[in-house]
Amino acid sequence: xxxxxxxxxxxxxxxxxxxxxxxxxxxxxxxxxxxPPKEANAIFANYxxxxxETLPELRLNYTTLxxxxxxxxxxxxxxxLMLHWTSASGQAxxxxxxxxxxxxxxxxxxxxxxxxxxxxAIGHGxxxxxxxxxxxxxxxxxxGDMVDLQHKLVTEVLGIARLRAIVGxxxxxxxxxxxxxxxxxxxxxxxxxxxxxxxxxxxxxLWRRMVVDAIKSxxxxxxxxxxxxxPSATNGLAIARLLIDGVPRLxxxxxxxxxxxxxxxxxxxxxxxxxxxxxMYALEASRDFDTRPGLSxxxxxxxxxxxxxxxxxxxxxxxxxxxIRIVPGGRFVVRDVSDGSAGHLSMTRPALWADHxxxxxxxxxxxx
Length: 368
Description:
Elements: H1 3-34, E1 38-48, E2 54-65, E3 79-83, H2 96-103, E4 115-119, H3 143-157, E5 163-169, H4 171-182, E6 187-193, H5 202-217, H6 231-244, H7 247-253, H8 257-271, H9 276-284, E7 301-307, H10 319-324, E8 331-335, H11 354-365
Parallel strand pairs: 3-4, 3-5, 5-6, 6-7, 7-8
Antiparallel strand pairs: 1-2, 2-4
């Protein structure tokens, strides 16, 4: 066999091997994306909340997508923390719409590249909450407690010293701001979606107080130890839905008496499985939120995203524009109204803001 022929055969073998490896990698990538998310519980014994109350055993449920990747120093460098909105859970971020827009191959947080962590905040989802049995005796938690527990999960349970990014939506948006303030060296960047860094006020505060007051004044409330769900909880959530939707979308959804009745029935049906204690605790948890004092100390890159038709976070107030100026190098986007916009609920339609997430990821990759 001539040397030239040997070289040709060797090159063919290498090419065949490369093709096989590429095929295997592609199959592994597809398998990684299509594989069921991994769910687990972190258990913290005798957990003490900021207000001083304790829980003998606190359960923090979380789900992950993808695999952790370690750099040359052995540290995980591809972790992305995704934080959900009020009365939701990490599972809300695993719908086909979210997985396609955010976690699919080539998407901003491609699960073949990133290790995505989706915790259920305390009081939500499969994490410890009042409806587990303690009801009104459950410790009064705040947003600060949520972030403390998320930090313990990331650092102590998962062993991650620094996150690539934190993406938070509504309540999770506020949690992301709290992370950047409390743990300035714990992430490369944050993407807070649909909130202000300032305390909850105005319309957003009023509807919370109205729902909580309605529940507490309901005769069926029984001090939180009710045997059946107080009707006020369902009514309160109907009011919330009226305020949370965008005005143009509601105008279309309730264009006639029949469609308005259908809308109300749909909202009530969605509220059936909701527990009044869980709702009240979740709404009152925002009382400790205010990141304004620490905005100038934020080190992470910040891309804040709000929506022009969000009635909770009105762009006309210019609050985000004012606050973001205090953040070193902070950026913001107020997305215009378009097909599919739904006011504050635009946050639940990731296709509307996936391009901003892509720009955020590209920005994180830029060298200082």
